Amino acid sequence: MKRLTLTARKRTDLGKCSARRMRKNGEIPGVIYGESGSLPLSFWAKELQLALRQMAGSTALISLDIAEEKDIRPAILVESQKNPLTDKILHVDFHEVSMKRKITAHVPVRLEGIDECIGVREESGIFEFHTHEITVRCFPQNLPSEYVVNVANLHVKHAIHIKDLQPVDGAEFVDAADLVIAACGEMKAARNASESNEGAKSPASESAPSSGGGAKKESDKK
């Protein structure tokens, strides 16, 4: 798994105005949650952005080096809030973990072999990616950064479930065994479903004018 280190400092000035001042000065506000409660922190924007880029599409164990403390706190990123227009980071949330206790975490799924998928390439199927992350329970040091699933041998009308995955060393799957990760559907079945949906709409659309016409005739009689 990926392991990164981030420097931080305790934040005493709270509120929206303080957060705006911090961002102007090149800092990003954040919080770490743990058994002892929450602790407001601030991070240097450039260092935080670099760490998030290194984590992109994966899970990582973060060692938070807080300036005012002697100990380094192990944590995992829970959420990073971004400005929807500029994509700049506005706030980050971390969850403190104990290396001696198991945690439950979400791990991204990365697919391999999509271009070689036999169901699409040779059987005219449609590839479907259902589950983009799986949930595992393990000690923090055993947390996988991602889970790679090869779909090259996936045939039409077949699917890959949680129960089909190779176990992760030191980790157990939390999701239901029959949860579908990826599948390959029939092109014909997809077309029939589309035509069925269109057919279900047509009676309603046809009945609307006749209903309106009937109402008009009643008013004419009056």
What does this protein look like?
The chain is an alpha+beta fold. The protein folds into two domains: 2-97, Ribosomal Protein L25, Chain P; 104-189, Beta Complex (RNA Polymerase Alpha Subunit, Chain A, domain 2). The protein is 27% helix and 41% strand. It is built from four helices and 13 strands. The chain has helices at 16-24, 45-55, 118-121, 187-221; strands spanning 2-10, 27-34, 37-44, 60-66, 72-82, 89-96, 103-112, 125-129, 133-138, 147-150, 158-161, 171-173, 180-186. A six-stranded mixed beta barrel has the order 1-3-2-6-5-4. The longest helix has 35 residues, at 187-221. It is elongated, with a radius of gyration of 26 Å. Mean pLDDT is 83; it is low at 203-222.
Keywords:
single chain, 222 residues, alpha+beta, Ribosomal Protein L25, Chain P, RNA Polymerase Alpha Subunit, Chain A, domain 2, 2 domains, six-stranded mixed β-barrel, four-stranded mixed beta sheet, 4 helices, elongated, disordered C terminus
Assigned CATH superfamily of the largest domain: Ribosomal Protein L25, Chain P
Element pattern in H and E? EHEEHEEEEHEEEEEEH
Any idea what the CATH architecture of the largest domain is? Beta Barrel
What structural class should be given to the helix and strand makeup? alpha+beta
Give me the number of helical elements.
4
Gap from first CA to last CA: 80 Å
Q: Tally of extended strands? A: 13
What summary fits the major beta sheet? 6 strands, mixed, barrel
- The CATH topology annotation of the largest domain reads as Ribosomal Protein L25, Chain P
CATH class descriptor name of the largest domain? Mainly Beta
Q: What proportion strand?
A: 35-45%
Strand order across the biggest sheet? 1-3-2-6-5-4
Mean pLDDT: 83
Helix percentage range: 25-40%
Global outline: elongated
Rg is 26 Å
